[in-house]
Write a structure and sequence with these properties.
homoserine O-succinyltransferase activity, Rossmann fold, single chain, twelve-stranded mixed β-sheet, alpha/beta, globular
Amino acid sequence: MPITIPKLLPAREILEEENIFIMEEDRASQQDIRPLNILILNLMPEKEKAEAQFLRLLGNTPLQVNITFLKTATYESKNTSRYHLDQFYTTFDEVRNKKYDGMIITGAPVELIAFNEVSYWKELEEIFDWTKTNVTSTLHICWGAQAALYHHYGIGKNELPQKCSGIYAHQIFDRTEKILRGFDDVFFAPHSRHTDTSVAEILNSPDLKLLSSSEEAGAFIIQSLDRKQIMVTGHLEYETETLAEEYTRDLERGLSVPVPVHYFPKDNPNQKPINCWRSHAHLFFSNWLNYYVYQETPYEWK
């Protein structure tokens, strides 16, 4: 089944070229089916790229999925046109009285700023609290995961000596968890962040379960015991070239950043990277939509 997106959304052309099954809103409204309603709070600076990354993964299941993009009202993006945001995004005030089957809160380039100093932090805290009653399952990515761990469970972040960037091997600790169904014993995933979260604090929390981690990159997939909050510290949604683009961007800004590890063949940035995480990215998002959203959400929200 398809994902339902606005007809003029730029990501549509990318997805059509990849044969991702998409459907316009007008056609979807004529189908006698209960679609999943997914809200995406997109905090990434290059919003159009992030849109395509998440839609690609959400469109790879038998379920029909309606997507709503959310923007912050207390901060205006400097990297995405106001026209794009006005046409395809809504604000929290416009959805606060609605219920959603699932929600994704993305990463954001604010890791080195204290949480309460982020310009939209109070707004985000309100959204975090709202998800407890208005969303069946919320998926938090990278900084969004760190922010959720801090807000919901009081677990802070620690600045790293140098940026954690590259493709890392991960182990799983409980293969009976449905979010990990079908995963290999060891799988790979991208990380791109300047801060870290304490594995010990996660393990000591009575409300959390560490599902996967990396010896090099630390905690990766964490979930609340009620499975309503899932935190992923890396970027399974990243495309093959995303880390290379970030590396080039940072160098052009004059930043001293390491070459992403285990990413370029022979660690040579002049060689084209090879994607070794795509299948697990699709599997993770399919498992989330199926087991944590579709099979848990009420048919009719009350």
